[in-house]
């Protein structure tokens, strides 16, 4: 921390600034130097000694002084970058200016009148070199600041190790230095792992925090429907104007993916060595995901100079978007790079799960939400990476942590965003056949989770967790039910053998969703029944042989299918069903689902602690906007069915075209009839009842039920195992209707999800930056901050 003297001097300067009503000249170095020259204040000191009220007062009452303060601080950073920061004093000045700008920038962004300030030109700061007074050529302050930060992030003996052997050697010239030789960590496109340096890590972190603060102007603009507004700070920083774009992208990615919180494989090691890498890794992850905030649905693709990309990038592809970070990410193609990235992300995502085996054995990381956004961006922007992930069972090392987070966060309304991103990733993966195939791998890892004990595959784990989310999650998760069931539909044709526990869970969901009060209480609820029937049909038609457990469960619960086939459609019955609903407060009863004991060592999913801060999220598009239907043809290739004739499964209702906001309201069982917006009619029920795909199941019951009953009577059986053995050896070849084509609903990028990701990502960054609290109590517009 700074000494008492320097804190005092710094505070004196701040008071002078806030009390001076006259503008202070930019040339008055004696005054301005007090802010950075003689002080050694930590970033925490700066936040304490420069209160929000005083920054706002200067902004309102002596704007020219605030402008000069910013201009002078940027000038000092530019000078530091030019000179290469050789003396301790220069380094200290750079850090002080960096902290001061991190403190002040949010108050510039929150005032619309000031927003253009950093994009205005400053006389004398020429683009063409040292101080040409040619204003045509002047650089906006924002550009000077961003280029200085980029230079400083590759500054020998400050943020990277010097390659010079002796101190006699003249300092490395920062302008001729090839920053690709100074990449921070081995990994993608770089083989050399530099000696770790605590000082360099801390200095990088301060500069990355300033960079993130520059990018955070996005927080002060309300969410826009078109999402087309690119962030000018990110746009410039990730353009060819930044000569360090490639090494910095690589440094950030490698720093995140190479991080091992365990302490080099030795349990409890973190208790002996304080881990100074984690804050840097966290900052790197946050900067990386913000630079990758790019709406791929609207992106134009101007040419990019292919010469800078090095060998790690694939030059064969057509030039990508002009955001170089997105461009580089989309062009990574080497197997060993994919392996490094996937292993790194899987290792970090699994970290909280390790905690549960040997408590405190490893350092528990907190940035799993940033990692999930990064993983999403990788899969979304780099299809080769997505295929690599699905090529081996390594994808399960991503799946299990996601299911752990989903299960753990299901009751906590402050973690609804985490639930969404986990489900979005699984939806994206489920669009690929290989994901369904991988799920057949036996699940043997016993991560303590608050779910029933079962023996089976990763598919069973997925179904059991989804059942838990639907039946005992927070009510704000209802919009996700469609997504959860779509994922199961997408993988169902490939599931070789469901356990009895998972089979019973699926039938319990059908029971819950096919009660008349649930079906009639909202315009879209019947879609859930269509999804479940589609799951059963896929398994019966394509995986009958190994699925005797599911077939047995269907036979046991056959009454549910008969009730659906005979669903009443007359007005009195509809009315009666809705009356019953008013007396049934729980949307899904847990009765009828044999819960069984939870796994040993697990804790129940807890609701949010009162007082927890959370940020609001924009609504996500409905499943019809979120996905595009494709049909699997004979040879296994996918054919898009968009725009399809309106005959496919879940679309038997005119309501399918309603905007998603409306159905979201109607999903809440209480609001539909109370508000008088929507009420079910006989015609409406008939319109979709006639399309319920019950033929396959009815045929199965018609053939198998008499046979099973006969066995029971003949052998006086009450024993399940005998019946299961019979079903295992039974066959329905030639008895079922012709198999329907497999329908896959693939995630499709759209501006609605792009906007959702932007608000979610910045909400996470806002809440995670508490020391110092960069954005707290500033007037952000992208989301609301709420207390639980």
UniProtKB/TrEMBL annotation:
Residues 297-316, 571-614, 630-678 are annotated as: Disordered. Residues 633-650, 669-678 have a biased composition (Polar residues). One of its GO terms (biological process) is vacuole fusion, non-autophagic. Pfam families: Hid1 (PF12722). The lineage of its organism: Eukaryota, Metazoa, Chordata, Craniata, Vertebrata. The gene is HID1. One of its GO terms (cellular component) is Golgi trans cisterna. InterPro entries: Hid-1/Ecm30. This is HID1 domain containing.
């Amino acid at each position: 921390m700074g000494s008492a003297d320097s804190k005092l001097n710094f505070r004196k300067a701040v008071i002078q600034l806030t009390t001076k009503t006259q503008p202070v000249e930019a040339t008055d170095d004696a005054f301005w130097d007090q802010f950075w020259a003689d002080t050694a204040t930590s970033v925490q000191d700066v936040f304490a000694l420069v209160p929000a009220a005083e920054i706002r007062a200067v902004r309102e009452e002596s704007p020219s002084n605030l402008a000069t303060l910013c201009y002078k601080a940027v000038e000092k950073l530019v000078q530091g970058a030019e000179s290469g920061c050789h003396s301790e004093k220069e380094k200290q000045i750079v850090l002080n200016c960096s902290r001061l700008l991190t403190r002040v920038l949010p108050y510039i962004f929150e005032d619309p009148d000031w927003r253009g300030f950093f994009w205005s030109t400053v006389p004398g700061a020429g683009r063409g070199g040292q101080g040409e007074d040619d204003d045509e050529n002047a650089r906006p302050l924002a550009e000077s600041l961003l280029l200085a930060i980029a230079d400083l992030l590759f500054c020998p003996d400050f943020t990277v190790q010097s390659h010079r052997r002796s101190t006699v050697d003249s300092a490395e010239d920062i302008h001729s230095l090839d920053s690709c030789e100074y990449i921070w960590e081995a990994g993608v496109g770089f083989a050399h792992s530099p000696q770790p340096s605590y000082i360099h890590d801390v200095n990088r972190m301060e500069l990355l925090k300033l960079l993130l603060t520059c990018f955070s102007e996005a927080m002060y603009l309300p969410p826009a429907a078109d999402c087309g507004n690119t962030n000018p700070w990110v746009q410039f920083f990730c353009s060819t104007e930044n000569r360090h774009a490639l090494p910095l992208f690589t440094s950030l990615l490698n720093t995140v993916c190479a991080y091992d919180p365990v302490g080099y494989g030795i349990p409890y090691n973190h208790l002996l060595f304080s881990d100074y890498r984690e804050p840097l890794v966290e900052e790197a992850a946050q900067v990386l995901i913000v630079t990758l905030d790019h709406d791929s649905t609207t992106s134009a693709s101007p040419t990019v100079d292919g010469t800078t990309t090095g060998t790690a990038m694939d030059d064969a592809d057509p030039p990508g978007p002009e955001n170089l970070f997105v461009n580089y990410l989309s062009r990574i193609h080497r197997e060993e790079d994919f392996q490094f990235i996937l292993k790194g992300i899987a290792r970090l995502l699994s970290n909280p799960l390790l905690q549960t085996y040997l408590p405190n054995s490893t350092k528990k990381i907190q940035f799993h939400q940033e990692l999930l956004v990064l993983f999403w961006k990788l899969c979304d922007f780099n299809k080769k990476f997505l295929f690599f992930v699905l090529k081996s069972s390594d994808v399960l090392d991503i799946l299990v942590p996601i299911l752990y987070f989903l299960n753990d966060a299901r009751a906590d309304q402050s973690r609804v965003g985490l639930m969404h991103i986990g489900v979005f990733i699984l939806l994206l993966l489920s669009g690929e056949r290989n994901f369904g195939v991988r799920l057949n791998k036996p699940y043997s890892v016993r991560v303590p989770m608050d779910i029933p004990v079962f023996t089976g595959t990763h598919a069973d784990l997925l179904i059991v967790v989804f059942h838990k989310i639907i039946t005992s999650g927070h009510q704000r998760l209802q919009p996700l039910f469609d997504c959860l069931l779509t994922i199961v539909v997408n993988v169902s044709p490939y599931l070789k053998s469901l356990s009895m526990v998972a089979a019973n869970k699926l039938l319990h969901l059908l029971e819950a969703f096919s009660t008349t009060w649930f079906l009639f209480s909202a315009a879209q609820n019947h879609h859930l029944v269509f999804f479940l029937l589609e799951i059963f049909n896929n398994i019966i038609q394509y995986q009958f042989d190994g699925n005797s457990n599911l077939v047995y469960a269907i036979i046991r619960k056959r009454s549910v299918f008969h009730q659906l086939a005979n669903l009443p459609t007359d007005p009195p019955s509809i009315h009666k069903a809705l009356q019953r609903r008013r007396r049934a407060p729980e949307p899904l009863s847990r009765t009828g689902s044999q819960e069984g004991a939870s796994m040993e060592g697990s804790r129940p999913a807890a609701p949010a602690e009162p007082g927890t801060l959370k940020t609001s999220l924009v609504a996500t598009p409905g499943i019809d906007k979120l996905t595009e239907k494709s049909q699997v043809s004979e040879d296994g290739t996918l054919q898009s069915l968009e725009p399809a004739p309106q005959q496919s499964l879940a679309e038997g209702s005119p309501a399918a075209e309603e905007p998603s906001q409306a159905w979201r309201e109607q999903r809440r069982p209480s609001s539909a009839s109370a508000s008088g917006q929507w009420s079910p009619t006989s015609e409406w029920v008939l319109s979709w009842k006639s399309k319920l795909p019950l033929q396959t199941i009815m045929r199965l019951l018609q053939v198998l039920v008499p046979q099973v009953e006969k066995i029971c009577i003949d052998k006086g059986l009450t024993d399940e195992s005998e019946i299961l053995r019979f079903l295992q050896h039974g066959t329905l070849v030639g008895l079922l209707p012709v198999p329907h084509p497999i329908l896959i609903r693939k995630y499709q990028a759209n501006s609605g999800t792009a906007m959702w990701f932007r608000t979610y990502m910045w909400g996470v960054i806002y809440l995670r930056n508490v020391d110092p609290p960069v954005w707290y109590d500033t007037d952000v517009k992208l989301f609301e901050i709420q207390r639980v």
